[in-house]
């Protein structure tokens, strides 16, 4: 573990990154839904509906005043934690769809999950185009 002074900014950065990545995925689905709603017919394939793990930053504070009938809280920060929802299935259910050093699928065409990896590659293209080339989500896994 890092010192509290080092860990807080790192976990704050990670929580913020998850927040923005979730926003980028939402933007991508809004784009897809807009295109589909203006099309003459639905696409001839299924569009996966994926989500990010819900996460949040938890700050633990010491009790400010002790010995009172009604204690006051808000004392010194004594711990910081990144909380994430539990993913069922363990490591057997884990798939690396896109590596953080490559924009293409990490799976070959004959592997389970390739269709999702290919869709995630498409989401990167949409994110790149819609952000003016500023950002994409990489390192997709689940």
What labels describe this entry?
142 residues, 37% helix, alpha+beta, elongated, two-stranded antiparallel ribbon
Polypeptide structure, described:
It comes from Pisolithus microcarpus 441. This is Alpha-type protein kinase domain-containing protein. This protein has 142 residues and is an alpha+beta fold. The chain has one domain (4-131). The protein has helices spanning 4-38, 114-130; strands spanning 55-63, 73-84. It is elongated and about 70 Å long. 6% of the residues are buried.
Low-confidence stretches: none
Inertia-based shape: elongated
For the sheet with most strands, the description reads: 2 strands, antiparallel
Give the total of beta strands.
2
- Secondary-structure element order, as H and E? HEEH
Average pLDDT across residues? 87
Number of domains: 1
Count up the helices.
2
Question: Structural class of the secondary elements?
Answer: alpha+beta
Distance between the termini: 25 Å
User: If strands are numbered along the chain, what order do they take across the biggest sheet?
Assistant: 1-2
Helix fraction?
25-40%
Rg, please? 20 Å
Strand content: 5-15%
Protein name: Alpha-type protein kinase domain-containing protein
Organism: Pisolithus microcarpus 441
Précis, in short:
This protein is an alpha+beta fold and 142 residues long. It has helices spanning 4-38, 114-130; strands at residues 55-63, 73-84. 37% of the residues lie in helices and 15% in strands.
List the helices and strands and how they pair.
Layout lengths: L3 H35 L16 E9 L9 E12 L29 H17 L12
Antiparallel strand pairs: 1-2
Protein name: Alpha-type protein kinase domain-containing protein
């Amino acid at each position: 573990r890092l010192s509290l002074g080092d860990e807080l900014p790192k976990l704050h950065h990670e929580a913020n990154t998850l927040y923005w990545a979730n926003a980028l995925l939402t933007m991508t689905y809004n784009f897809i839904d807009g295109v589909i709603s203006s099309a003459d017919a639905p696409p001839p394939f299924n569009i996966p509906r994926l989500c990010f793990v819900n996460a949040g930053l938890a700050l633990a504070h010491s009790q400010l005043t002790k010995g009172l009938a009604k204690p006051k809280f808000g004392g010194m920060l004594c711990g910081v934690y990144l909380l994430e929802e539990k993913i069922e299935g363990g490591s057997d259910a884990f798939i690396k769809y896109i590596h953080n050093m490559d924009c293409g699928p990490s799976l070959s065409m004959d592997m389970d999950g390739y269709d999702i990896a290919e869709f995630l590659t498409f989401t990167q293209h949409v994110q790149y185009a819609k952000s003016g080339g500023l950002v994409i989500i990489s390192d997709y896994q689940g």
